[in-house]
TrEMBL record:
SUPFAM superfamilies referenced in this protein's UniProt entry, alphabetically: RUN domain-like
InterPro entries the record matches: Run_dom, Run_dom_sf, RUN_FYCO1
The species this protein was found in: Mola mola (Ocean sunfish)
Pfam families: RUN (PF02759)
Keywords tagged on the record: Coiled coil
The protein's name: RUN domain-containing protein
One record GO biological process: plus-end-directed vesicle transport along microtubule
Domain RUN: 21-154
Taxonomic superkingdom: Eukaryota
């Protein structure tokens, strides 16, 4: 039932793109169905004067002391034109729709199981978890819908509004009425304080001090006169507001109901108590109006904070733009560095090719030197073989010298020749070895230089890459 009404409201909002007003028939259906749901299996309770309580008192019991969730309660209590619990409950529902808090509010109430069980019988869907969860989930869909419905300016005590009222005229009239009520606040507070003092004195001293009782009665008569004047002013203001409501709604009848009746036959103490209760109610309503003003001040402060936050966001945006420009400049520099690195890499590749060619030349030169060394080694071997032959020949000559002592001069000559041959062979051997060592040293130095160049060539690309 309620689920279909929510779906129809969502569809209307999507198709029109405009906030839902009291002209919407879908809003009428939803309001009646939601109220039926809230009143279904609701326990009957009465107030002090015998008037029937409604779901407004259920919301009040659940939310009055919950911080952050009682703004709507305090707002509705400030609406002095609402006289019945039913009208206040309807105003609270409309306030919750406008502020997109209906689902949160009902969920907060249902979480309080003790209060909910105290207000509803077992057949209520609110006491059945599977049904209550489904209802809350669908009511959360209303948070996506904008509502333009006022909690003031309609006779919510009588019925739900059937068309949108002219909010501007009513607000002007309401502002004037509230100003007039504000002027009466001081006087009512003084009257209330004086009445409390009189009542306290009467209760404490009425049995023992007859003179003070007569003074209290006199003051009470004066207070009642002042109260009667104040009540006449309030009645006049209410009559003016009812006239405005009749002009705005055109077809609605005046259904203002008076709930308080004064029993003229009661004792003076009972009359005093009744008047005190009425003054307390009016004082509470005025205090609630002050709370509404404080709420508006908080909203203004919140708007100021939002403006400050917007300025901070703009500054942060400017900072981000500057950072973006700096990053773009750094990106250009990085691209230029990358281009230079690529150029140097190309030059390095050319250098590596040159070094490779030089390496080939060194290798070929080394191979030529190796051939020379091999030839010198063969020469050394030949000389060594010659030395061996000379040594053999020397041995033979020595034998001949041993056999032929007479050939001393020949032997001396042969020895000289032998010594010369040895010196020549030693000189040739030393020269060959020195030349071989020089060639090896040269080749070793060239090889080391080549290795160093290759290491440098390999390390430079790594540095560029880093």
């Amino acid at each position: 039932m309620i689920l279909e009404a929510v779906a129809e409201l969502a569809k209307e909002y999507r198709e029109s793109g405009e906030p839902i007003t009291d002209d919407s028939t879908n809003l009428h259906k939803f309001s009646y169905k939601l109220e039926y749901l809230l009143q279904f299996d609701l326990k009957e309770k009465t107030k002090f004067l015998g008037t029937k309580k409604d779901y407004w008192e259920y919301f009040n019991d659940c939310l009055a002391k919950v911080k952050g969730a009682n703004d709507g309660i305090r707002f509705v209590k400030c609406i002095t034109e609402l006289k019945t619990s039913l009208g206040k409950g309807r105003a609270f529902i409309r306030y919750s729709l406008v502020h997109q808090r209906l689902a949160d509010t009902l969920q907060q109430c249902l979480m309080n199981q003790s209060v909910t069980s105290d207000w509803y019988y077992s057949r209520s869907p609110f006491l059945k978890p599977h049904l209550s969860v489904d209802i809350i989930n669908h009511l959360y869909e209303l948070n996506e819908i904008q509502f333009d419905v006022a909690s003031r300016g309609h006779d919510l005590d009588a019925s739900w509004p059937t068309f949108a009222s002219r909010e501007k005229e009513l607000e002007i009239a309401k502002a004037g009425a509230e100003d007039t009520c504000a002027k009466q606040t001081g006087m009512l507070e003084r009257i209330t304080a004086e009445k409390k003092s009189i009542e306290k004195s009467q209760l404490e001293k009425s049995a023992i001090q007859e003179k003070e009782s007569q003074e209290v009665k006199g003051k009470l008569t004066m207070v009642e006169g002042q109260l009667e004047v104040s009540l006449k002013d309030v009645s006049r203001l209410q009559a003016e507001m009812l006239d405005l409501r009749v002009k705005v709604k055109r077809s609605e009848e005046e259904k203002l109901k008076s709930q308080a009746q004064v029993d003229v036959t009661e004792a003076q103490r009972d009359e005093l108590r009744t008047l005190t209760e009425q003054l307390k109610a009016q004082t509470e309503a005025l205090n609630q109006s002050h709370a509404l003003i404080e709420q508006r001040d908080r909203e203004v402060a919140a708007h100021a904070e939002m403006a400050i936050s917007a300025a901070a966001i703009r500054e942060e945006l400017s900072t981000l733009k500057a950072q973006n420009a700096r990053l773009a400049s750094e990106n250009v520099e990085i691209r230029e560095s990358l281009h230079r690195a690529n150029t140097e890499m190309a030059e390095l590749g050319i250098t590596i090719c040159k070094l490779s060619a030089e390496k080939e030349e060194v290798r070929e030169h080394w191979e030529g030197d190796a051939a020379k060394i091999e030839e010198l080694e063969r020469e050394v071997d030949r000389i060594e073989n010659s030395m061996e032959e000379l040594q053999l020949e020397n041995t033979k000559l020595r034998e001949e010298l041993t056999d032929e002592e007479k050939l001393l001069e020949t032997i001396a000559e042969l020895r000289e020749k032998l010594e010369k041959a040895k010196n020549q062979m030693q000189t040739a051997t030393d020269f060959s070895r020195e030349e071989a060592e020089a060639i090896k040293f040269q080749m070793s130095s060239e090889s080391m230089n080549h290795q160093v160049q290759m290491k440098v060539s390999c390390s430079e690309p790594a540095i560029m890459c880093v």
